Amino acid sequence: xxxxxxxxxxxxxxxxxxLTHSKKKxxxxxxxxxxxxxxxxxxxxxxxxxxxxxxxxxxxxDSLSGADITAFNALASSLGDNNIxxxxxxxxxxxxxxxxxxxxxxxxxxxxxxxxxICQKIKEVxxxxxxxxxxxxxxxxxxINGINRDYAVEIFTTNYxxxxxxxxxxxxxxxxxxxSGAKAAFFDPSSISSNDMPxxxxxxxxxxxxxxxxxxxxxxxxxxxxxxxGNMVYPSHIKYDQTQSAxxxxxxxxxxxxxxxxxxxxxxxxxxxxxAHITAKLDECLSENKSAAIFAFQFKKLADEKNATxxxxxxxxxxVYCSDGAVINxxxxxxxxxxxxxxxxxxxxxxxxxxxxxxxxDFVKFAKFLANSGGGKSSSPLTSHEGExxxx
Length: 392
Fold this sequence. Notes:
- This is SIR2 family protein.
- This protein is of the alpha/beta class.
- The chain is 39% helix and 16% strand.
- It folds into two domains: 302 residues, Rossmann fold (3-Layer(aba) Sandwich), CATH 3.40.50.1220; 74 residues.
- Helix 7 packs parallel to helix 15.
């Protein structure tokens, strides 16, 4: 009996060469799992810098009282899932249709108020600063700054927080996020489409908005100091509709344009592929542009990353790296360590392999691996598939 396996050493050897290639067009997609990986707890008690959906749901629930918590719990029970995304979707749906009628003790005005309270609490929770000392956001920016690139690195994120901005400003790294100005920066879609700023400027594209975005008196989205109510695309049933309007349409168009460029590589971290809108866009672009590729670094096992592995099995130019195995070139297989691809590789292996697990699905480990890959140039493309083999 033969069993197909993937050798992580060979893929990481090739990957390290790509990271230092000055002519490679590299983008990074940061999902909600990135800030979750940062532990800010004390006395050995794990506490994420920004919680996952389960943790966020509990925080929101604990902040409500009276008729609000009664309606919240009733909706959670009727949905059969205590998930803030689903509950907020239902709250907004009810607010649109019930008018003066009451459901679970609230009418339309009550659900509008409840939606606003939930959104404000979400904003409070995600409005965090980076911990002192080393952190993965600083490592990520350090890696970008360490290489003299022909093309700018583009960071796409679904997160509303300001952690990337903080990391870049601490490192005095210039970046462009689509806005121009200072007091109430205005959105400039023409700058996004032309993308003609110097390569040393990082591009930061916040696909679902930010806590420091708000609307001015003309209904236009501006970037300010974050004191006003944010205009984030909160997770709900209206997400797709909102992303068709400015500035979200321009940001999604930039994601599409990047993936349609020749020989582009998008690295994803902390992104589960559960966002159907973004996943569909990725699938569409990779179907059209066979020279583009996505490397998805997932925290869980293959069996627990259904959304990501399904996408990779459908598109061979999507590679998914999980803790126990990978989907590469449309082939799903477990990891198996092979011969060291270079001298002293054992030290490098420790950065991505621990306790028989591939650990770059952890954003903390992923960012440090990037930072440790260093500068320099290489002409070695990531085309080798020597890592696949048959083991009897």
